[in-house]
Amino acid sequence: MRRQAYTTYATPKPNATHFSISGFQLFSIDVISTPSILSCCLLLAVALYASEPQTGIEGIITVGPVHGGPARVGVPDSRPLANATFIVQNEKGTATFFTTDDQGRFRLSLEPGHYTVSLKDKKGGIARYGPFEADVVAGQMTRVEWRCDTGMR
């Protein structure tokens, strides 16, 4: 009896992994690439984060007046208080710290309660950088716009 020689090829097909030998499909595995899995996980995490109610304080802190003398038409009398560190306290003491961004904005998560916020390490002088008061309610971000006073007149 004479045997025939067959040429055997294993060929993957695009977008899935299918292997066949001599035209007969042996097995088929659909594979999702690792970047796709990571992308799906990231999207799920973002969706869950966005759907959960946040609890804390967010807002902007400005300082003014920024120039002496009377206010002038068309000339802003305040500016964002950029890169300033504030201390957040409640009835138990210091709860946390935060630093404003370059536009004076901040956002921080806090447990529900009453908080007092002041500039950290304020040195004497006539300027007033708090204290500011805020009440935080569960499931809500308390939005604030606080203005610090430079004491300049």
How do the strands and helices of this protein lay out in sequence?
Elements: E1 17-21, E2 24-29, H1 34-51, E3 56-64, E4 79-80, E5 85-90, E6 93-99, E7 105-109, E8 113-119, E9 132-136, E10 141-149
Kindly summarize this structure in a few lines.
By secondary structure, this protein is mainly β. 12% of the residues lie in helices and 40% in strands. It is extended, with a radius of gyration of 31 Å.
What is the CATH topology descriptor of the largest domain? Immunoglobulin-like
What's the CATH C level of the largest domain? Mainly Beta
Structural class: mainly beta
Order of helices and strands: EEHEEEEEEEE
From the N-terminal CA to the C-terminal CA, the straight-line distance is 111 Å
Nearest-integer average pLDDT? 80
Largest sheet: 4 strands, mixed
Query: What is the CATH superfamily classification of the largest domain?
Result: Carboxypeptidase-like, regulatory domain
Which radius of gyration do the C-alpha atoms yield? 31 Å
